[in-house]
Design goal:
mainly alpha; Tetracycline Repressor, domain 2; 10 helices
């Protein structure tokens, strides 16, 4: 399907080379199609960027659903998700979102809507982890979820001090540390077992 191919290739190109530097002409040449074909599917660059954001969140949702279906508990599932969010493909996706935040703030509001939903889901996951006995029962799920998501947003979107580090390095240090802090002894055992199977995020 032409429209889906445009979204996938645009997301890849924008994430690798930057939203501002890639024109619709560049995208057309990259795809080997006419610019008219792009405009038959998207009225302008902003509409295409919104489609890229929607695709980004749909992919993340599917990845998370798969992680929770295959994991034995919440702690395992979150660790798998952190690993996925530390890979090169995730880096390109975060570059895309960050560029949209800087240069297309009106489009970024579409992403912000998903962020609110993500915090609510994280709050539910923290409560589920408490119920499963892998997270401490003295936690306030709302505070933990808010902190977790805000830290992620700071690392990937706002804080220039993190720019010299890869997502793999960041999540390898912060992800495990945060998880150990909210886990029970049972949860820490799960983390240590996971770390042995994955020496570091690649």
């Amino acid at each position: 399907m032409v429209k889906q191919r445009i979204i996938e290739e645009a997301s890849e190109l924008f994430g690798r080379s930057g939203v501002k530097s890639i024109t619709m002409d560049d995208l057309a040449r990259h795809l080997g199609i006419s610019k008219r074909t792009i405009y038959e599917n998207f009225k302008d660059k902003e509409e295409l960027l919104i489609a890229c954001i929607d695709a980004f969140h749909e992919e993340n949702f599917e990845m998370q659903q798969k992680a929770f279906l295959e994991a034995n508990n919440v702690a395992d599932a979150i660790l798998v998700i952190l690993q996925k969010n530390a890979g090169p493909e995730a880096q390109r996706q975060f570059n895309l979102i960050n560029d949209i935040r800087k240069y297309y703030p009106q489009v970024f509001r579409e992403h912000a809507r998903f962020q609110i939903d993500q915090r609510r889901k994280m709050e539910q996951l923290i409560q589920r982890g408490i119920n499963e006995g892998v997270f401490r029962d003295d936690l306030n799920p709302e505070i933990i979820a808010l902190f977790f998501c805000r830290q992620g947003e700071s690392v990937t979107h706002n804080d220039k001090d993190f720019d010299r580090f890869s997502l793999a390095e960041i999540f390898n240090n912060i992800g495990f540390t945060f998880m150990r802090g909210i886990c029970t002894a049972k949860g820490i055992e799960i983390i240590d077992k996971y770390k042995k199977s994955k020496s570091s995020y690649q």
